[in-house]
Design brief:
With 80 residues, this protein is mainly α. The chain is built from 3 helices and no strands. The protein has one domain (5-69). The longest helix is centred in the middle third of the chain and has 28 residues, at 28-55. The chain is rod-shaped. The termini are far apart.
């Protein structure tokens, strides 16, 4: 995970904005806000990928498969 360029960028940005006097640097809370924003973004990306894996386009589904996907069962049709 440390090889991921986005993770390295976030870590470097956070280290670069250590709390010092606010005269020559960004406000103290800005680095924390950015870290929180990045965390939200990464979490959302992970959830999005999970949804794609679960419900993503896998071609045509039968009615029974679609029903099972959302937790329902299709009743068996009696044969005549």
């Amino acid at each position: 995970i440390q090889q991921d360029p986005l993770i390295r960028y976030i870590a470097n940005e956070f280290k670069r904005h250590q709390a010092t006097q606010e005269i020559n640097c960004k406000a103290q809370n800005e680095a924390s806000y950015l870290a929180s924003t990045y965390l939200s973004y990464l979490t959302s990306c992970q959830k999005h990928q999970s949804l794609i894996d679960t419900y993503g386009a896998k071609g045509e589904r039968t009615t029974k498969q679609a029903a099972r996907l959302v937790g329902l069962d299709v009743p068996d049709t009696p044969s005549q």
